[in-house]
Amino acid sequence: MAWLVTGGAGYIGSHIVRAFETSGTDVVVIDDLSSGHRDFVTPDVPFYDGSILDGGLLRRIAAEHDLAGVVHVAGYKYAGVSVKRPLHTYEQNVTGTASVLSAMADAGVGNIVFSSSAAVYGTPDTDLVTEQTPKSPESPYGESKLIGEWLLRDQSVAVGLAHTSLRYFNVVGSGAEDLYDSSPHNLFPLVFDALLDGRTPRINGTDYPTPDGTCVRDYIHVSDLADAHLVAAHRLEAGEALEPVYNLGSGDGVSVGQIMTAIARVTGIDFEPEVGPRRAGDPARIVASGELATRDLDWRMRHTLDDMVASAWAARQAADPRERE
């Protein structure tokens, strides 16, 4: 039996697909390539170029493949931009998830792993976020992910859907040099683009109540994340009980200043980042506990910060091998 990965040509989705391939688990991909890359998916993996809003296509995929379940990664993932495009965000993330669940129900597919987000927490008033931390999303993106979790919960009550949702913060690094983060909004690509263009990277605020004055966040390696999705899928397929949600967190976090230092050290490009004012709404520290995921999903931080930077830098250079002056 195979697992369908929606959004499997994107940065995170493609790493999940590679994890399934490496484990010997059959996998199928659907992606509309709005932000994904066709060449992120190896030729051996069945690929469908289309939208999860196309229920007919989803049902055809289910008819053509013996699906054990779905890893649902596809979605509009830009929290900041979602404020300006709320209807688009809800269509892609809420209507899209409902479309996936409807096709699954029609085809009798009973397992789903949902790629959720720590954006469901908004700005928590605790130093360590747990699954019980109150949910207070501050963007249409965060709201849409929380609604997606509710849809899974309600479908479980209705038809016995086996499900779990994985919430995470900042995903970085690369598990293969041909897979890279091409997001125009994420920290690592922004810093790498600046360095490759000969510009100086920028830090927004150095006066936060943290050890070095810069924001502290959870940064996790994309391969560790992919492995957790694989374990969750296998456990659901085996009929084992899982929690409805898990945080994939580091437990301690890394500051933006530490990341800049690591990037300079690993790339060999000596730079002193520019310092700008704080961005409105940026909390000083958001870090999540991964204890439940460690217990149930073999979740571990298997990569150091330098590993994250080195792998991401190698993939970025392979994608754009411009020579530095």
CATH class of the largest domain: Alpha Beta
Biggest sheet descriptor = 7 strands, parallel
| Secondary-structure-derived class | alpha/beta
From the N-terminal CA to the C-terminal CA, the straight-line distance is 51 Å
CATH superfamily of the largest domain: NAD(P)-binding Rossmann-like Domain
Q: What does the radius of gyration come to?
A: 19 Å
Averaged pLDDT? 94
Provide the number of structural domains: 2
The 3D shape can be described as globular
Count the helices. How many?
A: 10
CATH second-level architecture of the largest domain: 3-Layer(aba) Sandwich
Q: In what order do the strands lie side by side in the largest sheet?
A: 3-2-1-4-5-6-11
Helix and strand sequence: EHEEHEHHEHEEHEEEHEEHEEHH
DSSP helix fraction = 25-40%
For this structure, the CATH topology of the largest domain is Rossmann fold
Low-pLDDT windows of residues: none
Oligomer: single chain
As a percent range, the share of strand residues is 15-25%
- Please report the total strand number as a whole number: 14
